[in-house]
Amino acid sequence: MQHSVSIVNYYNTTPFLYGIHHTNFLSHIKLELDIPSACAQKLKNKQVEIGLVPVAILPELDSYHIITDYCIGAVGKVDSVKLFSEKPLEELTHVLLDYQSKTSVTLVQVLNKHFWKKNIQFINATEGFEKQISGTTGAVIIGDRTFGLTNYPYQYDLSEEWQKHTGLPFVFACWVSNVSLEESFITEFNKTLGYGVNHIEESVIEKPNEALGDKSLDYLKNKISYNLDTDKRKALELFLELMKR
User: Are residues 180 and 162 in the same domain?
Assistant: First the structure.
């Protein structure tokens, strides 16, 4: 029996996809490539059984299981989830929120409510919002579209900001199922993802990133942190708790 799986189609999932394509695991799943918000929606609507979903969606699911020891996380700077602006944080009045993700836009609001405590109005943005950054209006932009965005004098890395205030790493997305899965499948899936994470160099050779160029390997090895370890699980709990508040 094949399980349906939605994975984020950003460069940071390259090692996971490498693992899936270089083992025989593809025969066990029906794979769909999506932006994070679509992964979340599909899992929520039960269009897929497994998703690499933004963690901010978890409270919206009827029931869920975190099924692997891997995630999209970061310890300090992540480089691809930032608040971009022409003015410093102190002067911002409005922040546009990237429509492609739920976790990052929730994170900026959690940071503001509990730590920055600035008088900022947050606005849900639509396609093309990146061009609206101006004056006291900033924007949260995530994923591959952040690569090469150097023309903004102020760039706040949201994962770095989270660590600065909590002392913890951050988890942007984790592997979640909306059904109970066989133990044998979960074991095999874990092995597959681990294979990819242990072959990052090979995955970059196979799929280089034009915008990142020679920084591709550094991004996947040193900016993205894939192991869902104890500290990340603790961070995830804290984030969900602060979201609730």
Answer: no
67: confidence class by pLDDT, cuts 50, 70, 90: very high
pLDDT of residue 150: 85
What is the C-alpha separation between 49 and 1, in angstroms, rounded? Answer: 12
The reply to whether the predicted model has a pTM over 0.70 is yes
Domain finish residue from 113, 139, 166: 166
C-beta neighbour count of 74 within 10 angstroms: 27
* CA-closest candidate to residue 192, choices 46, 79, 67, 40: 67
Q: How many CB atoms lie within 10 A of CB 149?
A: 15
Structural domain including 56 reads: 3-76+169-244
Tell whether 69 and 86 lie within a shared domain. Answer: no
Neighbours of 216 (CB within 10 A): 21
- Dihedral angle computed from the Cα positions of residues 138, 140, 143 and 144, in that order, rounded to the nearest 10 degrees: -10
